[in-house]
Amino acid sequence: MTSNHELDDAAEALPPAVSELFGTGASTARGERTRQELIVAAKICFEEFGYTKTRISDIVQRAGVSHGNFYRHFTNKADVLTAAIHPCVCDLLQGTRRNGRSDSGDLSALIASTTSYFTVYARHRQLMRVMHEAAAAQDGSGFIEKWLLIRREFTARTSGWLGHLQERGVIAYDCDVDTLTEALSAMTEQLAHLEIGLPEKAPRAEQLIRMGRTAGEIWYRSIPWTPRAVPPAS
Fold first, then answer.
1. Helix 77-84 vs helix 29-49: angle between axes, to the nearest 10 degrees?
2. CB < 8 Å & 24+ apart, contacts of 198-204
3. Could you report the per-residue pLDDT of 82-109, keeping only the tens digit for each?
4. Residues 6+ apart with CB under 8 A from 108
5. Care to name a GO molecular-function term for this sequence (predicted)?
6. What is the model's pLDDT at position 225?
7. Residue 28: which residues within 8 A CB-CB, separation 6 or more?
């Protein structure tokens, strides 16, 4: 389990454009308590009813506050969903950072990274499912733009890592780093969505380990290592 201190570090590490999506909190202690009550209530409602079926009236009723209090802190339900996913985003960021990738062709490091991603994803599987639903809703709320901005933070880390390896001659100089990043990221995200997010039951730990190993091996074999890197696994 990721500690609160680690999540705080991950939140501070978010680029300004992403941090701004989650807001700065209320100006008073009482206002912040109300805001947090709304976020907790919204998370419960979203996970129980889904994004589309959740109404703002459901959220305020569960939080025990008025509609006016809701709109004092949030513009719409996409706005409160964005606030609700903040811990999830930080957990994913910190989990994959803690099990980072190496500066060479290290299969074990890639397996550790993908396994960590799936493990954290499973911890937030219900909310991740809601995020997919909200992103596909096309309801004019602007959530899809927010979600894509958050996703770009994760893919930028991968492309930056691959670019670093390319500069050092560890992977082929003619590798299309951006396209490879998108392909590997999309594969990993879709596998998580289909095998972790959508099923009725949460995955067992051994399933997450198997998924992490398989995805890590796919990453490893898809990256065009040069002879300077560790030889491909047999």
1. 100
2. 198/129, 202/122, 202/125, 203/118, 203/122
3. 999 998 988 888 877 655 567 777 899 9
4. none
5. transcription cis-regulatory region binding
6. 94
7. none
Taken in order 37, 151, 130, 94, is the CA torsion positive or negative? negative
Q: Which residues does the chain have with pLDDT short of 50?
A: 1-4, 6-7, 10, 234
- CA atoms of 39 and 190, how far apart (whole Å): 27
Distance separating alpha carbons of residues 187 and 148, to the nearest angstrom: 16
pLDDT of residue 10: 47
Going from the C-alpha of 113 to that of each of 3, 10, 137, the distances in angstroms are 18, 16, 30
Q: How far is CA 224 from CA 77, 173, 186, 214, 228, in A?
A: 44, 9, 18, 18, 11
Q: DSSP class of residue 225?
A: B
